[in-house]
Amino acid sequence: MKIKVFAALILGLTLYSCGTVNEKNKGKGFNLFPVSQDIQLGAKVAAEIDGNPTEYPLLDSAKYRDVYQYVYKVRNNILNSGKVDFKDDFKWKIKIIHDDKTLNAFCTPGGYIYVYTGILKFMESEDQLAGVLGHEIGHADMRHSTRQMTDQFGLQILLDILAGDRAMLKQVTAGIIGLKFSRRHETEADERSVLYLCPTQYNADGGAGFFEKITKTGGNRQPEFLSTHPNPENRIEHFHNSKITQGCQGMKDFKTEYQQMVAKLPK
Q: Given its phi and psi angles, is residue 219 left (phi above 0), alpha (psi -120 to 50 degrees) or beta?
C-alpha cells in the first residue's frame, strides 16, 4: 500500500511539473491533472455519453445538417475571437441531445460540447446561444472539471479511470452533466463568456439573456445548476458589468436567423 501511495505521489508531482505549469494555465488555479489528461478524460466521458443513446439521444448530424452547421458557426465565432486559451488543443466538438424538457448544456474536459434541444428552443437569439456556448467553453478552457477533481479527489480518480474503473467514469460523467460547479467556477465561466464575445459582433453579455428569461418565466423550468446558484439576478448584473468594464461594442443578436434554425429542430 505504501509503495502504491508513494508511486501515485511521484506520478502526481511529475504530471504537475510537466503538464500544468505553462502560460495557458496562468490564473487557472492548482490542478494535478496535465492538459493531456483533460483531453483523454474528455474523450472517455464523450464515449460514455455517445454510447448511451437511451439516456442521451443525439440528433443525427446528417439529418439535421443545417442545425449543426449553425451551432458550429457560432462556436467558430467564439474560437476565432483570439481569447480561447486552448483553442488549438481541445476538440471543441458539438453534439445536440434531443430532449426538449431539459434546459442544459455542458462541456467535458478537453472540449466536447453537448447542447440539449430544450435550451435551444428556450433561448431567443444567436447572441444568447453564443453566451451559453461561451460559458461552457469557459468551463473547459479554465479546466474547471479537473480543478474540481483535484480539490475533491486528488490524483486517485485519474489513476482509477485510466485503469478502467467504469463506475468512477460514470460518476464523473454525471457530475459534469449535472454542472455541479462551485459558485467561483460559474462566475469565472460567465466572465470568460463575455471575454470571448467581446471582440465579436455579438452582444458580449448575450449569456445574460438566458438568465433574464428564466427570471421572467418565474423559474418554472430552472436548469439543475441554478439550484446551487439561486440568484440569477446577480449573474445578469455581472454579465452586464463585465461587458461595460471590458468596453465591448458588439450589439447584434441575430434573432431572425436563430428562430429559423430553431424551426428546423425536431418537434
A: left
* C-beta separation of 192 from 135 below 8 A: yes
Q: Distance of alpha carbon 60 from its chain centroid, rounded?
A: 21
Please say whether the dihedral angle defined by the alpha carbons of residues 28, 179, 170 and 99, taken in this order, is positive or negative: negative
CB 115 within 8 A of CB 94: yes
Cβ neighbors of 111 (< 8 A, separation 6 or more) are 42, 86, 90, 91, 92, 93, 137, 140
What Cα–Cα distance (Å) separates residue 37 from each residue in 56, 82, 234, 263? 24, 24, 34, 39
Give 116's strand partners. 97
- SS3 label, residue 106: strand
| pTM, two decimal places | 0.85
**Tell me: the pLDDT tens digits for 66-118?**
999 999 999 999 999 999 999 999 999 999 999 999 999 999 999 999 999 99
Coil, strand or helix: which one is 116? strand
Q: Which of 255, 28, 266, 21 is nearest to 123 (CA)?
A: 255
185 within 8 A of 27, measured Cβ to Cβ: no
101: phi then psi, degrees, rounded to nearest 5: -90, -10
- Are 124 and 161 within 8 A, CB to CB? no
Distance CA 52, CA 47 (A): 9
- Identify which of 90, 201, 79, 211 has the alpha carbon closest to the alpha carbon of residue 134: 79
- 266 and 72 Cβ atoms separated by less than 8 Å: no
Q: How far apart are the first and last CA of the chain?
A: 56
Give which of 148, 42, 38 is closest to 85, Cα–Cα.
Answer: 38
